[in-house]
Design brief:
homodimer, 441 residues, alpha/beta, Rossmann fold, 3 domains, seven-stranded mixed β-sheet, six-stranded mixed β-sheet, 16 helices, 20 strands, 41% helix, elongated
Chain lengths: 441, 441
Amino acid sequence: MLEKMFYPESVAVIGASADSRKLGHTVLKNIIDGGFKGRIYPINPKSGEILGLNAYQSILNVPDEIDLAVIIVPAKFVPGVMEDLGRKGVRAAIIITGGFREAGNEELENQVLEIAKKYGIRVVGPNCQGINNTHHQLCASWPLITLKGRIAIASQSGTVAAALADWSQDDGIGFSTFVSLGNKSDVDEVDIIEFFSEDENTAVIALYVEGVRDGRRFMDAAKMCRKPIVISKPGVTERGAKAVESHTKSMAGRDAVFEAACKQSGIIRAENLEELYDFAKAFAYLRPFKGERVLIVTSSGGAGILAIDVLESNGLRVFEADEELKAKLRDLVPAHAILDNPIDLTGDATAEMYLNVVKAAFDYADAFLLIFGDPIEGAADTVIETVKMADAAEKTVVVAFLGGAEVEKEEVAKMHSHGIPVFPTPERAARVLAALKRWGH
Amino acid sequence: MLEKMFYPESVAVIGASADSRKLGHTVLKNIIDGGFKGRIYPINPKSGEILGLNAYQSILNVPDEIDLAVIIVPAKFVPGVMEDLGRKGVRAAIIITGGFREAGNEELENQVLEIAKKYGIRVVGPNCQGINNTHHQLCASWPLITLKGRIAIASQSGTVAAALADWSQDDGIGFSTFVSLGNKSDVDEVDIIEFFSEDENTAVIALYVEGVRDGRRFMDAAKMCRKPIVISKPGVTERGAKAVESHTKSMAGRDAVFEAACKQSGIIRAENLEELYDFAKAFAYLRPFKGERVLIVTSSGGAGILAIDVLESNGLRVFEADEELKAKLRDLVPAHAILDNPIDLTGDATAEMYLNVVKAAFDYADAFLLIFGDPIEGAADTVIETVKMADAAEKTVVVAFLGGAEVEKEEVAKMHSHGIPVFPTPERAARVLAALKRWGH
C-alpha cells in the first residue's frame, strides 16, 4: 500500500522553487542529485524552468501519472493541493510544510486528512523532514545522503532521525530509508512496521515515537514483523509525558504499559538515542544471541572488567575459564597475559593473538566480545576472519574499539565497510550483546 | 611531596634507546619533542649519543641533580636501577616496565618497593604508561600530546586513561596531567587527590580505579580536596569484582560501601567511561549547580523531551512556563514555537532566538539547557554570550549539539575553544546537569 510512497516511479515536487534559499529548491535538487531514476516534475504557479526541468503550474497539467507528491507550499494552500492530487489520481503525499496541529491549527490538519481519506491518499507528515530511500535513490529530504544501508529510521522528531542518519554516515554504514513522520496525521509507526517488515533492503527498524496511536494494532504489527524493531520513546517521567503532549499532541500513556507491550511483542527498547543507534546498528548486521556463555578477549583488563559489570547486570554469564581452557591458551598469549575471562592480552596484544585465542576457545563460548584498547594494526582483518568462523557456527561476535587515534579510525572504518559493527566503549558493546540476547528470546 | 614527579627540573630516561622501535626511544623522544624545558639525560649502558643527547652508562655518572627518573629497562634490572637512584638522591621514579605483580612476580615488586622506601623514592607504576603534564611540557608517556587542559586524568588502566586523553584531544580541550597508575605500588588515588587538589593547572580530577587501598584515607583526602573528583570504579557485580582481583590484584570491595563512601565525601561517581569524561569535562569548565529551576531551549521538541526524562528522573525540576513568561517570549520566537518548557523554537530556530529567549526568561531559571538539533549557524557566538551573562549571575548553562554534520562540528569546536563544554546528545547533557547538581550539594 505504501509502495508508491517509498518506491515511486514518478515524483512531483509541489512548491519547487528556483530560489536556492528555499526548501522547495533544496528538496527538488536533492531528488535530482540523489540520482532518482524515475520522472521528476517540479510544480510552481510561475511555471518556467527549475533546475533544468520544465515546471508545471499545477499537477493537473502534468501529462503523466504521478506516484508521489512532495508538498512544500504554505499550510493554507495544502488543502487545495490535496484536492488536485485526488483528482490527478496521486495516492501518496509527503507534506513537509509545517503550521498544522503542532502550531494549533488542528482544523486545517483535519481538513487535509479528510481530503486524503476521500481520495485514498496516504500521507507522511505534515510538518516533517520528508523521506529518503537510499536504495531507490530517492532523497525527498535534506541533507542529500546517498549511502545505502540496512537500517530503516522512522521518527516523530526530524532532528532525532537526522542525528541517527548523521551517525550512520560517520560510521559509513548508512541507512535503507529515513522517514520523518512529523505530525503523523496518517502514516504512523504501525504502517512503518508493516511496510518495512517486507522491505527487502531493510534489516532492522529503528523508531523514535512519542506516543503510539493504537496500542493493540501496534503490538500486533510488531509481533508479525519479520525484522527486529528497536524503539526509543520518551515520556517516562510525568513531566516528560506532559511535554510529549505539548510537542506532538501524542498521548505518551503510562510508561509501564508501554514497557510491557514492548516486552510482549518482542520490541527492544533503547534507553537513549545513542543506544537506539547502537542497537539498530547491531541488529542490522548481527544475529540474535541464543547462547549463554560469553568470552571477553581484550588488550585492556580495565575495559574488560567494565564490560563484565554490564553483561552480568543484564543477566549474561561471563564464565570463569577453567584449567583446561587456560592450558590451551597459555602458549598463544604473552607470558604476563591474564588467562581468566576476560582473556587479557595486555598492551602487547597483536591482532593475531585475538584470532588464535578465539580459535582455541571456540567451543567454550557462544559469544565473543572483542575489545581493542590500543591502536592494534590488523585488528580489522582478524575480526573479519573471526566473524566468518563465528557465523558458520552461529556464534555471536561483538567488537569494541576504545579511543580515537588514527589507527583505530582506519581499522574501525574497515570493519564497518565489511558489515561488522564496532562500538566505541566496552560498556556500549556489552549493552549491545545484552540486547542481542533479549532479541534472541 | 610529588612536586618532583610532576614538575621536575631534570629527567633521566633509564633504558633510553637509539632504536626507534623501542619504548625507551619513544618516551625519550616525546619528552624532547614535547618541549620539556628542563635538563634531559638518557641513560644506556652503551652510552654514546641518543636523539642528539649525550647518553650516560649509569645515572651515577650524570654530573647534575636528577629530579625524576623514567625507567624502561627489563623488570629484573629495576631493583639495581632503584638502588642507583637512591644513591644518586633521586626522589621520584616512574616505572613503565611491566612484569611485576600483574605477571605473578609479587616478590620483585615488593623488593623494588622496599628500596624505594629505604631511600624515600616515590614511585608511579610499575607496569604503566607513564605521566604527561602538559603544563610542564613533560610528556613521559605516549603518544605525544601537548594540548594544555584542566582535567587531571589518573587511571589504573592505561587504556582507559588513553581513551579519556583521546577524547579530550578530539574535543580540543586537552588535559592538565595524565597519570597511568599501573600496579599502583606506591603512588595511588589518595596521593593523586592530595597533589592535584593543590595543582594550579588542574580544575577537576578524573579517576579510574579498580580498588581503593585505604578507604578511610581515601575519604579524608576526598573531603579535603579543593577540586571536584569524578570516579569510575568497576566491580559492581560479583563477577566483575572477581575480575578486578585477577587484573590488578585490587580488592574491589563491596560496591554499596564504595557508593556510600563517594556520597559522603562528595565524589561524583560516573556510570561508564563516557560519563566519566562528560562529567570531568563539565566540572572543568562549569560551576556546581545550586539552584532548582531548569529551562530547556531547543530547536527540537523531541530532543528536549528526552532531556526532561533524564532531568526529572534525577530529581531536577523542569518547571512549566507560566502565562507571564509565555507572554514575554511570544514575539521572540516563530509563531508555531511551543512556549512551554522546553521552549521549542522548532527547525526555524536561529542563534539569535536562543539568546533572546534566555535574556527574556533569565530570572525564571537557575540553569539553562540549550539544545541545538540542527546545523544552526552562529550557535557558538550566541552560547558564548549566554555563558557570559549566566556566569555573572551564577547561573549554569549546559549545551548539547546533536548530530555530526559539518556546521555542528565547526560551532562545537568554537565553543570548546572558548572553554564551553558541549555534549553530543540531550540525554548526556541532562546527566551532566544532574551531576552538576549533585556536586552543588
